[in-house]
Amino acid sequence: MEEEFLLLDAGSAEPAALAGKVLSVAGEHPWRRSGGGLHRELFQTQVEAATGTCTTLAELRGHLHGARVLLAAVARDEGLELVSAGTPMLAGAAPALSEGERFRRIGEMYGGVIADYQSCGCHVHVGVADRETAVAVMNHLRPWLPTLLALSANSPFDRGRDTGYASWRMVQQSRFPGSGVPPWFDSAAAYERQVDRLVDCGVLVDEAMSFWLARPGVGLPTVEVRAADAAGTTDEAVLQAALTRGLVSTAEAALRAGREAPRAHEQVCAAAVWNAARHGLDGPGVDVFEERAVPAVQLLDRLVGHVSGALADSGDLAEVEDLVARVRRMGTGAERQRRAAMRGPRAVLEMLSSQTVWEQPPRTYRESA
To answer: What function does the entry list (predicted)?
Structure first.
């Protein structure tokens, strides 16, 4: 998994461009020998932690939590707070791009669209046999990607205002070419031709870049799912991982049985992404199979049911059901941010920084059970 975080000034709650200092002091990822790493992101106000390869949810939780605790401790020593949120609540000064030729090219290509894109996501890689399998699995994932977004919604604010959206990050991402649910591809070669076409059209920097919510891993034998906002808590990141692995395993079983992925209509998928970004779990979603609006929580229940066999096989079903129930009780990250905002921006910062290194948000910001 890859988690992107914001660095906020502890006094002003505005983004602080000190990623280089934080990463330098933090040193190596606690599980670097398993492949974990700490990295720069697009802006100097962001850092990324990538776990090593994990086979159990317990192992993954350890990797995620260890990196969060390390980065948060270093940040606090620098007068900062590490927060896991899809967008910052306050804008602050115009952020500076991180150093590097690729970041420079991205800045030049996208201009003003990238200028305020301090957006953070939670990306899940699941190992598969080969790239052909990755593309076939990706087709099966298409109908479920909006529900993963709705579950993760954690970015309701922009420049100090409530946007009315649960995931403003996804609204920002939709401004880039090729965003949202990926098209249906009949082969890995077809996928690669489409990416090459977008590069040739001058709208992607290179073949390793795309904005689709799922893609074959770049340089890795994986399916990479990029639907989720940055997860407020470690448990919510684990939940995204468990559901994603369940979706991949379920898709692989369907492929072995000779079942082709449904060809959900691209505009209906786009409507589903918009609804997920607008409402999260607190409102309507779009059933892409029936092409109509239904309660988003109903879609979440269907998703869990769809992958329940795979979750049972991996021993994760009970934990996933518990984590889903917890999110429904506490509210999504966006809902918790809004509750905290009733006390002002400082309360949002305190809640976000606390829950980033805790398994759950402080009780003050949870619905009473």
So the answer is: ATP-dependent carboxylate-amine ligase which exhibits weak glutamate--cysteine ligase activity.
Query: What is the predicted pLDDT for the residue at 80?
Result: 97
CA distance 157 to 160: 6
Write the CA distances from 56 to 126, 242, 271, integer angstroms: 12, 9, 34
Q: Could you give the domains of the chain?
A: 2-354 (3.30.590.20)
> What is the 8-class DSSP label of residue 81?
E
23-31 mean pLDDT? 91
In angstroms, rounded to a whole number, what is the distance separating the alpha carbons of residues 33 and 28?
10
pTM for the predicted model, two decimal places: 0.95
Neighbour count for residue 286 (Cβ, 10 Å) = 25
pLDDT tens digit sequence for 170-199: 999 999 998 999 999 999 999 999 999 999
> What DSSP character marks residue 79?
T
What pLDDT was estimated at residue 365? 46
Secondary structure (DSSP) of 170-202:
HHHHTTSTT-BSPPP-SSHHHHHHHHHHHHHTT
CA proximity to 168, closest of 85, 296, 280, 277: 277
Return d(Cα 223, Cα 203) in angstroms, integer: 23
Does the structure show a pLDDT above 50 at 368? no
Where do we find the tokens 């598969």? 128
pLDDT-derived band of residue 209, with 50, 70 and 90 as boundaries? Answer: confident
- The DSSP call for residue 135 is H
Residue 348 to residue 342: CA distance in whole angstroms: 9
DSSP state letter for 80:
E
Angle between the N-to-C axes of helices 57-77 and 345-357, in degrees from 0 to 180, rounded to the nearest 10: 130
Cβ within 8 Å of residue 159, ≥6 positions away: 90, 91, 116
